[in-house]
Amino acid sequence: MPTFSSAGQAVHLDHYAPKRPGKHPAVLLVHGSGGPIRGVDPYGEKAASFGVHVFVPHYFERTGHTWVSPAAIERYFVDWLETLGEAISFAEMQPGVDPDRIGLLGFSLGSYLSLARATYDPRIACVADLFGGLPEHFVKDAGKLPPTLILHGDQDGTVPVDEAYKLKALLEEHRIPHAMKIYSGQGHHFTGLVQMDALRRIATFFQEHLAAKRTARATP
């Protein structure tokens, strides 16, 4: 398992690489407060088979956590944000990765981190937000967000669906390409056929926005 250094700590990444030669896009899966995503192997391997590098950074290793409570999030958010940026730097330097085609797929806390980072990191071509939102502190820079996909459940008791609607309003205000699907009866994770529909939407979104080299956004 590859590693990079963040604030003197070794941080691991799972890496699923395409077998085809040449340069390919990359997607970083950014986990939530429960820690690194378990059971991601089939999805990572499937994406790799379509010609996408998938990286799963274990960013909690920066602060020595395996999971975090809500009270810890505010304290360590900036640390994890920095580590996410270092994970992107690591990914874009890997053989076969096209640095102009890097996307983020965030889950809950990981979505907040992904969207926050994308307001000032022009390397991020697009973001898929699952069960998350944009932290209030970064709203002033929402106009710098890249194309965004929003997926949320209307019965989410952890991150209220209002967060999805607020993000959509910001994207509309700044005329940023986006798509949103709110799933009726779904909570803080998707189940059954909804999970399959969400995966289809995620795949379509990344195919659309990582298919070709993008025009770099201006560095703030």
Key attributes of the depicted protein:
alpha/beta; Rossmann fold; eight-stranded mixed beta sheet; 5 helices; 33% helix
Explain the overall architecture.
The protein is α/β, with parallel strands linked by helices and 220 residues long. It is built from 5 helices and 8 strands, in the order βββαβαβαββαβα. Strands 1-2-4-3-5-6-7-8 form an 8-stranded mixed β-sheet, sandwiched between helices. Helix 2 packs across helix 3.
Helix and strand topology:
Blueprint: E1 3-6, E2 9-16, E3 24-30, H1 41-49, E4 53-57, H2 70-92, E5 97-107, H3 109-118, E6 124-130, E7 148-153, H4 162-173, E8 178-183, H5 192-210
Parallel strand pairs: 3-4, 3-5, 5-6, 6-7, 7-8
Antiparallel strand pairs: 1-2, 2-4
Helix pairs in contact: 2-3
